[in-house]
Amino acid sequence: MDELKLPRLLTDGAVLQKNKPVHVWGWDEPGLRVDCVLTAHYENGQVEEDVDYKAFCTVSDEGSFSAFLPAFEPGLSFTLKVSDEKGNSVTVKDLVTGAVWFASGQSNMDVTFDRIKDNYPEVIAASENSLIRFFDITSDTEYSGPLDDPRTGEWKCAKPENMYTISGSCYFFAKRMNDKLGIPVGIVHASLGGSHISSWVSKEMLADYPELIEESEKYGDPEYRESVIRNNEKLSSEWFAECEQADQGRSENWNEGIPEDGRGKMNLPTFFADAGLEGFVGTIWLEKKFTAGEMFAGKAAKLWLGTITDTDEAYVNGTFVGTIAYQYPPRKYNIPEGVIREGENIVVLRIRVDGGCGRVTPGKRLMIFNDLCKADPWSDELPEGAIDLSGEWEYRIGCTMDKNPPATDPINWHPMGLYNAMTAPCTPYPIEGIIWYQGESDAYMTDEYVELTRIQVEGYRKLWGDENIPYILAQLPNFTDGHSPSEDGSKGGWDEFREAQRKITETVPGTYMTVNMDSGEDNDLHPMNKLDVGSRFADVALDLLYPGVCDRPSQGPAVSGVTCEKTDNGYEIVMSLSNVGDGAVAYSPDAKKRGAIRDFSVVCGEKIVPSVAELADDSHIRILFTGEEKPDGLRYLQRNTYIGEMIYNTSSETGEKKPCKLMAPFIMKI
Q1: How many domains does the chain have?
Q2: What's the pLDDT score for residue 491?
Q3: Cβ burial, residue 484 (10 Å; 0-12/13-18/19+)
Q4: Between 20 and 30 A from 206 (CA), which of 23, 74, 249, 376?
Q5: Is 96 helix (H, G, I), strand (E, B) or coil?
């Protein structure tokens, strides 16, 4: 390094961690003296006073330098000037002290307000707050070793024009923290959809996993990495070009309507397998006619189609209105003025199915609406006056491919790659804690995930130089992907992974968990509810680090004792609850699942018996079990999703008693 340079994290607008020494580091010509002056701008009544705090160091033979300045209380503002003896200098302005958190994980930590803007328009409009700041690192990998500095990132304040690139979970965490503490909150955010926990740990942390180190080191060879990228592109482009060329609908312009001959019918939304197209790979063109009146004729409108697997194109009266190239994002397309006409109209969808599991996701609304009949983004109901596109559609096959697209190498998900590029460069920057939302891609692991989390937590604490850094993880929410939950609540999917996440908090000191079984959507991997995710992270952090500040429970009820007594008809099981707040209640955010507490199972030896429970009072749950064999265990919420009302504590924070935090899934012996 021939000229003075500071890391991206130490740039204008940065939040410096309060009550920890300020770390200033960077790069310059070896042997030079570097002076660091941190000017604090104090306000004493009507008098402003600047005070300089100084440190110096010498650039190492490797070209790096590091200096520490004193720790400061929160809420102060600073200017930093770093200069060397050759006269080079860098000035960093608008620095503030506050609470800095590192936020990481996969897609549900990464989902931005651009995806959820329809659900939170008022939040976006009212977001301006110079005390809430974000440093977002664009997804990046590096396999040759840890980077010294992230390749992207700049500090941004919360305000409407910035919100569309800000993580929803991170924002709601930061907002809750700022609301309760009144101090600056900075979020350093590094996430990537689909990533594995092994991608977020270092070579040293993986010392007991030589196979993962070997896998990673292959990608450290630039020639090998480039060959993989080229091969991915070649395999994909050849298959997609073949599909495109074979698509009869493309060559005959079916976007204006499919031919009359050879049509089939299916009711949407549906899994294509349920419509007789099990395993289908290729393109399918679907058509539905609708009638529009004066409310829609000539006016701009919106077309919502839920989620679709895999790639879709949408046309209204032959006009292209939108496309999305993969299955997860909601299809929300704008129909321009002048496209919809009074009388009969036509919607055409071209869907390319890549993996044999095509669908227009059941449970999602298919509709056209406009400002005269606005849709509630949180509702499953059609707004009054909207055009309902569910029901019978006609279709024709555009082409049938005899094989799936060739498997490609997800080059960004291999071990160590994300850690090297995104996490490692952040570790010199002092933080208060870590929030972690990941696991969807690792849900097949249980014991191994617990161990990988242990080495991640211990490794991160060592690198950040603070063995007490709290690590708060988000337990995975409800999700079925269209599959029915297990009838007996036994072997499944995410239920076993959630149990592994719970074990982390029991075996790894200083780790904590938020429960989110009510914040998901059974038919959507990327639920819109990021308010509960972020605020629950914050409540745990507040309760842990700022006792007395959080005016509602930070965790849900817990079973503090169980009795099992013989009755004339079987056994009465009574669970005593702690941490009930203003009293335990049974509640389901999904109205269709209300009416009873159905998510308990009684264990008798090898048998698991689903059982209905009831609240005996505001701190006890009762199960009247009619089996002959004495129960020896209980299971709660051991399914992919919940099927009845769940147990919550309550809070009167707003003056009205409301459900607050829900009881965590558990498996226990009696």
Answers
A1: 3
A2: 46
A3: exposed
A4: 23
A5: strand
**Closest-CA residue to 65 (of 428, 419, 427):** 428
Residues with Cβ within 8 Å of 573's Cβ and at least 6 positions away in sequence, in order, are: 562, 563, 564, 602, 622, 623, 624, 625, 631, 634, 670
Decide if 1 is inside a domain: no
Q: Are residues 581 and 502 in the same domain?
A: no
Q: Are residues 62 and 211 in the same domain?
A: yes
Q: State both tokens at 262.
A: 């050879």
Last residue of a domain, one of 545, 573, 598: 545
Contacts of residue 653, Cβ cutoff 8 Å, sequence gap at least 6: 551, 552, 660
Q: Please check whether residues 330 and 441 belong to one and the same domain.
A: no
Asked whether residue 3 is domain-assigned, the answer is no
User: Same domain for 631 and 660?
Assistant: yes
Starting at the earlier edge strand, list the strands of the sheet with 585-587.
Answer: 585-587, 646-651, 658-662
Q: Is the residue at 134 inside a domain?
A: yes
Please tell me whether residues 475 and 504 are part of one structural domain: yes
Given strand 597-604, what is the order of strands in its sheet?
558-567, 570-578, 620-625, 607-617, 597-604, 633-636, 666-669
- How confident is the model at residue 490, as a pLDDT? 42
**Which residues form the domain of 147?**
15-215+414-545
Burial of 325 per CB tally in 10 Å (0-12, 13-18, 19+): exposed
CA distances from 563 to 556, 574, 577, 629 (A): 21, 5, 12, 15
Half-sphere exposure of residue 11, counting CA atoms within 13 Å on the CB side?
A: 14
Note whether 428 and 23 are within 8 A (CB).
yes
Low-confidence ranges of the chain (pLDDT < 70): 1, 44-47, 482-492
Burial of 157 (C-beta count, 10 Å sphere; 0-12/13-18/19+):
middle
Residue 488: per-residue pLDDT: 44
State both tokens at 586.
């049974």
Sequence-ordered list of residues with C-beta below 8 angstroms from that of 606, at least 6 positions apart, any chain: none
Domain boundary among 545, 570, 597: 545
CATH of the domain at 372: 2.60.120.260
pLDDT at 47: 63
Q: Does a structural domain hold residue 183? A: yes
In sequence order, what are the beta bridge partners of 513? 473
Measure CA 488 to chain center: 29
**How many Å apart are CA 533 and CA 267, to the nearest integer?**
35
Distance CA 327, CA 352 (A): 10
At residue 46, the pLDDT reads 61
Asked whether residue 62 falls in the same domain as residue 107, the answer is yes
419 and 535 housed in the same domain: yes
pTM of the entire structure? 0.96
Q: Let me know whether 290 and 348 are in one domain.
A: yes
Rounded Cα distance, 434 and 468, in Å: 11
Determine contact, residues 417/216, Cβ cutoff 8 Å. yes
What's the distance, Cα to Cα, between the start and end of the chain in Å?
Answer: 65
Torsion (CA) 442, 447, 448, 449 in degrees, nearest 10: 40
C-alpha span between 78 and 92 (Å, rounded) = 9
Please state whether 94 falls in left (phi above 0), alpha (psi between -120 and 50) or beta. left
* CB contact at 8 A, 83 and 40: no
**Which CATH number is 112's domain given?**
3.40.50.1110
DSSP-based helix, strand, coil % in the chain, nearest 5: 20, 35, 40
Confidence (pLDDT) at 166:
98
Q: Given this model, what pLDDT does residue 131 score? A: 98
